[in-house]
Amino acid sequence: MESLTNTTQDKKSLFQWIRKYNKQFIGIITTILALLFISPYIYIILTSIKPSSEAISNSPTFFPRELSIENYISMFNQMPILSYFFNSFITAFVSTVLSVFLGALAAYGLARFSSKLGNVFLLITLCIRMVPMISIAIPMYIIINSMGLIDTHAALIITYTSINVPFAIWLMMGFFNNIPKEFDEAARIDGCNIFTSFLKVILPVSLPGLATTSIFCFMLAWNDFLFALLLTSTNAKTATVGISEFLTAYNLDLGPMTAAAVSFSLPVMIFSILVQRYIVSGMTLGSVKG
Amino acid sequence: MTKEAKVSFLFFAPAGIFMLIFLLFPVMLLIKDSFFQVDMISQDSGTFVGISNYIESITSDRFLGATTNTLIYVVVAVSAELLLGLFFAMLLNTGFKGHGFVRTILLSPLMIAPLVSGLIWKFMLNSQFGIVNQLLYDFNITSSRNAIQWLSDDRTALLSTIIADIWLTTPFMMLVLLAGLQGIPVTLYESAKIDGANKIKTFFYITLPSLLPVLVVAILIRTVDAARTFDIVWVLTQGGPANSSEVLSTYMYKTLTRYGEVGESSAMAVLFIILLLLLSSYFLISMFKANKK
């Protein structure tokens, strides 16, 4: 009897050992696979710091043989990249502020005072999500054109805001629904009216929600290419359009292009790692709840 | 109107008015334009042509070709992302030491612009300086350094755009599926173990069914996004060579900007919306059914 328990114990510990070993093995394999998966991006970063002749070498290597900031210098020399970045930033920033402001107000109204309208609205938002960007872009181009706003910041701000508002309402409603109504009531007892209780009590409590919504609205605008390509030409040209112009039929500036692509996306990547918590909560909100 | 409804209306009004002008009106205009022959320069309202724009689009070979390419793009990209995403999600879900760090690595492309993904792959797949061809040559898979003209060969152009899409969006798939996996109660696995189910059986009888609602939503979101892809295709191939990688978005863009055909591009855009709504309603219904169970 004793020996029996001993062997089962041995078996158990052996099994546990294999499992433990297994886990480490899986860990190592997954880490290698993850690094392989991310390697295209690492390769672009490494290429951007190669000398430009090496960046377009006929026998490319993963790691640079020599380091240089040549590509970054020629990126600045070849186009007013800073003003393109500025255009991207200002349109993304203003449209984010507008969408979050409009979206938070509307979401609060829907979440607190009329759940029926709120449900209808969720359906509309879902439908809007199905509408391809290009379908909105066609009439938007005609409207912006007839308003005489082609190639202005306003054109992009209006467009980004209109796409982001339904999304902002949808996200913010999720957050407001999680805040107990007692918060509003307590604020009212303390002498707030509906608007001041919204501003002073509800908004501060829903800061994580506002952060998540802002990140998504900002990223949509910052990453947009289609609308910027369609609605701008010189004055309001954004970074995405600028970067894409390193590659034309007559001009294949691959070295400076990698420098511009890294300058454009690396800050975003670092930022998104820092705020990953919010991004994850925003992305899993709709899809996992159902 | 009750006081409550009034307040709700007040809060909703600014966003409502904005969406009325800049979202609902454009969609209305789109539908209207699809029945008209519109001249971009004179900016008059155009002449009514009935459904001839629709007939013209449906019967054109390029539209049908772009639709087929879009379908191929969606099916191949979404299935590959799904398999890769599920694979990574299951590996991470084993909870090995340092899985949080690996998760962060895998999630880092999450917010990269589709345009940048296109640029990265444009660089890597370049037939002259690209590292992909170099690696294929180094591993003796191909016989010369520029054996495959990824972007200028009509057999590989569409595939190249799909690769860029898969790379960009697998992290999203992984994230959603991982959240779904973590939501499966441990007790389910424990009782399966007691019943003597092996790993493969557990996967097919516990993991997959419990994951189904999340899977359906993830597939839906990605299907819609992949169908409206523009940036990646535009930067990699612009739909070429010989329209071999033309998808609906790039074709509509060209119809609007290069040929100035507002009416026809609007008609295609309306068809595209209807197509996506039909597709997603199928998903939404099956999701609803899965929820009921």
Kindly describe this structure:
Chain A has 290 residues and is mainly alpha-helical. Helices cover 80% and strands 0% of the residues of chain A. In chain A, helix 3 packs across helix 13, helix 5 crosses helix 7 and helix 10 crosses helix 14. The N and C termini of chain A lie far apart (52 Å). Chain B is mainly α and 293 residues long. Chain B has one domain: MetI-like (MetI-like fold, Orthogonal Bundle), CATH 1.10.3720. Chain B is built from twelve helices and two strands; from the N terminus they run αββααααααααααα. A two-stranded antiparallel ribbon of chain B has the order 1-2. In chain B, helix 3 runs parallel beside helix 7, helix 5 crosses helix 7 and helix 11 packs antiparallel against helix 12. Chain B is globular and about 70 Å long. The mean pLDDT of chain B is 86. At the A-B interface, helix 1, helix 4, helix 5, helix 6 and helix 7 of A face helix 1, helix 3, helix 4, helix 5 and helix 7 of B. Chain B: One of its GO terms (cellular component) is plasma membrane. Chain B: Belongs to the binding-protein-dependent transport system permease family. Chain B: Pfam families: BPD_transp_1. Chain B: It is found in: Cell membrane.
Q: The CATH topology of chain B is what? A: MetI-like fold
CATH H-level homologous superfamily name of chain B = MetI-like
The largest chain-to-chain contact, stated as pair and per-chain residue counts, equals: A-B, 96 and 99 residues
CATH architecture of chain B: Orthogonal Bundle
CATH topology group of the largest domain in chain A: MetI-like fold
Mean pLDDT of chain B: 86
Total beta-strand segments of chain B: 2
Helical fraction of chain A equals: over 70%
The average pLDDT score of chain A comes to 84
The biggest sheet of chain B, with number of strands, parallel, antiparallel or mixed sense and barrel status, is:
2 strands, antiparallel
